[in-house]
Design a protein that fits this description.
- By secondary structure, the chain is α+β, with helices and mostly antiparallel strands.
- It has a single domain, classed as Winged helix-like DNA-binding domain superfamily/Winged helix DNA-binding domain (Arc Repressor Mutant, subunit A, Orthogonal Bundle), CATH 1.10.10.10.
- The chain contains six helices and five strands; from the N terminus they run H-H-E-H-H-E-E-H-H-E-E.
């Protein structure tokens, strides 16, 4: 059997290196749900296990360690014997709030749910758009005016 080898030319470059970086840091379901749960504030392990329905304790532990390694979550002891930790988001972790809201809104729309981000004043569905503060223009959704660097 011949072994296939892929050279550099066979690898297609990513259109958005930023998306690849984000996916490598928090690209799984559980990590995103943990970050979402921590957006409400610090939580203990058991509180997170309850907030993230269906997650196994070993998976929760592994994801928390990964999120700490990535600098998105920080833990601190609230009990020394036995060692018990409380977890909270770092500033970088809090920066994910907007992206999580957009993903949640997209998920709701794709399921046909009427639940999603709504304007508190009029109840209308919110629409997220790219906006350039340099020229005060809204960039169209077709990405024709976007340039990833």
């Amino acid at each position: 059997m011949r072994k296939l080898q892929m050279g550099r030319s066979a690898v297609r470059p990513t259109r958005s290196p930023g998306l690849a970086e984000a996916a490598s840091r928090v690209g799984d379901r559980w990590s995103l749900l943990i970050v979402d749960a921590l957006l409400e504030g610090e939580r203990r392990f058991n509180e997170l296990a309850t907030a993230v329905a269906g997650i196994a304790p070993n998976i929760l532990s592994a994801r928390l360690k990964q999120l700490e390694h990535e600098g998105l979550v920080v833990s601190r002891p609230y009990s020394e014997r036995p060692l018990r930790l409380v977890y909270e988001l770092t500033g970088t972790g809090h920066d994910l709030a907007g992206a999580l809201r957009m993903l949640a809104s997209w998920g709701s729309r794709s399921r046909g749910d009427v639940h999603g981000a709504r304007h508190a004043v009029c109840g209308g569905e919110l629409d997220v758009r790219w906006w350039c503060p340099g020229c005060s223009e809204v960039v169209p959704g077709d990405e024709s005016d976007l340039h990833w660097v």
